[in-house]
Amino acid sequence: MSAQGEANGAARRRGSSVGRGIGFGCLALLAAPFLLVAGVIGAYLIARAVPEDYPEAEPEAVARRITGTSADVTRALRLGGPDTDGWGRQWTRSGPGVDVGPAPCHADGLENWLEEPVPGAFFLAHRWQVEHVSEAEAESALRRAAAYLRRHGWRITEFSHEKAHRYLNAERNGDEVDLTWTATDPGAGPLEGRTYSPCTYDPTPQEGLPAL
What we know:
Layout: H1 3-49, H2 59-77, E1 99-106, H3 110-113, E2 117-134, H4 135-151, E3 155-162, E4 165-172, E5 175-182, E6 188-196, E7 200-201
Antiparallel strand pairs: 1-2, 2-6, 2-7, 3-4, 4-5, 5-6
């Protein structure tokens, strides 16, 4: 074979290799979205198969615990009310807002993207409010509450003092306490308290959320 023939053959082989490389590259680009979707679906199915690491407790017991915490905190505030029984249903100061009720829990990760509630899981929130608290009263009351919570094993995660706003957050064993004061009138405003439970499995799950 002449030198020219060998050169032509080498060029054809190189062209064929380049063509195959381009073909494989195009196939990879076309397959990438499908592979990504398959990977996401696989990860989602694995996540759904692994149960969330939530504690287990009767909803009524959780309700008594968090409303009991609210009662303890309101006594520590020493604002003259609200005052509550174990269920948070007796109030002595005018105009309190009360909300005790279950809410669904959503898993972390891919399951949370789809906003699917975890079957049999719930958390409780207890909300109360004291009206017409002055700035000086709120400052002193929140300091008393923080001292009380620390003494009883709560960890203060945030205690902020800003103009016309005070905020306290504490955590213990998954439970949380939020105390917020915001001036709505000159020098005064409501002090709002919220107590939350962590996500919890109902040992006797039923259709929907537990009725309390």
